[in-house]
Amino acid sequence: MNKIKCECGHVNPHGTVLCEACGKVLVEEEKKKKLLDMRYEGTARRSQTYNRSLVDKIWNFFSSVKVGVWLIVVTLIASALGTIFPQEMNLSISVSAEEYYQDRYGIFGQIYYLLGFHDLYRSWWYILLVASIGVSLVICSLDRAVPLYKALKKQRVTRHNSFLERQRFFTRAAMENANQDIELVTARLKKKHYKILEENGNVMAEKGRFSRWGPYVNHIGLILFLFGIMLRFVPGFYVNEQMWLKEGETKVIPGTDKQYYLANHAFVLELYDEEDGEVYKNAIEEKGGIVKNYQSSVTLYKAVGESLPGEKPELQEVKNYDIRVNQPLKMDHYAVYQSSYRLNEISAMTFALTNKETGEQFGNITIDLANPKGNYDLGNGYSVQVLSYFPDFEILDGEPHTKTPNPNNPAFAFKMITPDKPEGETSFAAIQQTIEPLGENTYKMAFQSVETVNYSGLTVRKDLTLGIISVGGIIFLLGVAQGSFWQHRRIWINQSKGQVAIAAHTNKNWFTLMKEIQAVLAGTNLPIPFDQQLDKEEAKQQGVNTVG
Amino acid sequence: MVELSSNFLFASFILYLVAILFFGGAIKQKKGMEGDHQNANINRWGKIGIFLTIVGFISQLGYFVTRWIASGHAPVSNLFEFITFFSIMFVAGYIIIFFLYRSIVLGLFTLPIVLIIIAYGSMFSKDITPLIPALQSHWLFIHVMTVAAGEGILAISFVAGLIYLIKNIDQTKKSKKTTWLEVVMFGIISLFGFIVISAIFSLANYTASFDWINKDGVQENYEYHLPALVGPNEWTLVTENRMEPLIELPSAINALKTNTVIWSFLTGGLLYILIRLLTKKRIGQLFKPLVKKMNSDLLDEISYRSVLIGFPVFTLGGLVFAMIWAQIAWTRFWAWDPKEVWALVTWLFYAAFLHLRLSRGWHHEKSAWLGVIGFVIIMFNLVFVNLIIAGLHSYA
Ligand code: HEM
Question: CA–CA separation, B396 vs B377, rounded Å?
């Protein structure tokens, strides 16, 4: 490519606006402007230089801040729309999503569903938006970081006039013997933590250059973060399982490759009461029961050795723990969280085989609802068979039926075999209720009692992406702080032919820079720079100097 | 202890009120331009004003510490406590910016808004609530306090932007800009309207009890403290001699809170019309004389600077700490809960703001509008998402 040679002798790469060495304006168009665009120090950026091939076009598209802002704004608006109605993933519903949104939210719900907003954050276009931000972050950072790095490394103290006079803060005045004043100002600048470079009586003072890297650091953090989130889709990086464990039960922990087992000894739910202090009295009265704690007391086991499928392995106790909200049980990369509970669920029911007339009983059967067995032998020729089991019994169109798989209203069909009725009689028994479908029976199954048990709802989670996500987050924060809390300020004081020129540049917070310059120049004969961006009218109103 | 705590809060309210008077006096006295490069001295009135502001701030900290001791946990666990803490951080934001830029006019506008926010917060139940299990974590106060701090600093950007707009929008004729500025003013007045109308009906001890059917078909009860303009799904009025709702809302919308919002806007609207009729001026026009001595460049820089300081703090509290806590309490660091999404929206908005500032065309007036919009988003998250859309975070 054609290189550009400046009058100072330096050879610049194609696309350079300001000479890398002396700062002379190289591009005719730029010379007509009163002020320079200093953002990337006039270096050659790929996106500003090439626009031919498809790669160039894509590169230029994604490196544009305008495009970046649009991507951010569209993502923002889309995200907000997703909160109008609840997201499908945060609901636990038994009907189809379509029905649900239509029933609850009418026509708006229907539209919401049709547009896919009910599952917005997992939709392909939302993911595509976020991915585009990621691509844009990579490209825009590469496009700028490299040239910026080169430019900031190659700074010169002596600058071309065309560079100085196009700075926003600038002044020039004839002055003899400026050296003494310059020395004083230099000393003051040093006190304000400026780094000073001197060359033939010219001075450049600079501070906060590292803050220029802030945006690139934070973008790297963001890229890492997004990368970490993508890793979740790699098998083995992410486990999310749910388990219900009732009191007294030991089960394998899902998602752990049968390595871990958990026993639930007791589930406890506590509410706040008077003993928790006078200060809570009003709130408790107003809201009713406020939950204080719920926890599962568990023992964690590890399986040792190999075991055949279906066979229970040998278990080795690892630890006892109380799992509470905010205090998950941790092992390896897994964490087991207390996430929900079901209280007082019926676990077993007891019935007595009873002669209806005499009331005589021939023994009890206790049915474990988790495992309703087929046949109960009561001896002496009496036995009971469970024909069918309905956990949540209701009658639908004259037929027995179960509403849900949960034992909310259990019912059974029994066959009772007795010495006088060897064929058996069929009886249908629920809590407080007996139905005899095939005519009058001699015997019945009389309901005796229920046993209840508490279920603890646990979430099992493994997330190996957390490490990289955290690192990304930390880098992002450091980068933002670096770019926001510090500014890159430069002041040039150049002398030539009996004239002193002072120019200054900052990447942000010009007002503060001006105050600082005024403070260091106070009491010297050096001229105070003007803000060339203000027009005369504004300046007069604000009591500030301007050119001319 | 609870009483002492309330007294501290009340004292700071009065202190801020008096500080406003001194700030008002200060700008009357001041010669030249605030933010003038040559003359940046603050007169005696201004010094007293800022002194009172700092004392008020310390008194609010007193409220915070004593309430913490009384309740046994950081007082940021219900809506009253959170809004009050936000007001503390709002003042903190002003004090930080004051020491960077010495602006009195900024204080003159910040403190009245802070007063409205304090009063707004105290309209909610002040009971000390015990913590439910999910909230029993140190992350509660680490997260909430950092978010509030970030939002408080970002809010300064709104105040500076608002002053910028009041100063620079041409009020001699009606335009789109003057209309939007009036909309913002109306919003602030409506917040005030909420306070006025709630105070009136609570003095009159108004209550009306409604039974209604919720979305799961179960009967619930609502206690209205304002006359019901809108009623809940399938309502029946339990209290006798109370106004019947004009409109019935579907069960997906919280009728009680919607009713309150409607009343606030009605009262705000009434107040707004009264002011317009009495002064024969737009509200923006009314405030214009107060800001004419303010340097526009300075305002622009304050607005930008507070975003630069507030954005990292907000990111830390609203996203990073929030994610850490969610991972511990809710098993995953992000659940797309409405409140979370709105924190993301806020964050994306300020990220867009920072990028737009990279091009020169988005300084000054456009930037001032963005500062205002950012605050609208924050308030939306604080007021509406809490009240209307319920999720994991719903306090009330
Ligand atoms: C959510 C996504 C993003 C966040 C949170 C973010 C954050 C930031 C922050 C905090 C700054 C520093 C601003 C300042 O100090 O004034 C910055 C600068 C910048 N960002 Fe981003 N950014 C994001 C996406 C993007 C995208 C997609 C682009 C692509 C065009 C982009 C391009 C830039 C550029 C060019 C700078 C200025 C660099 C400089 O001054 O040298 N950003 N970004």
Answer: 20
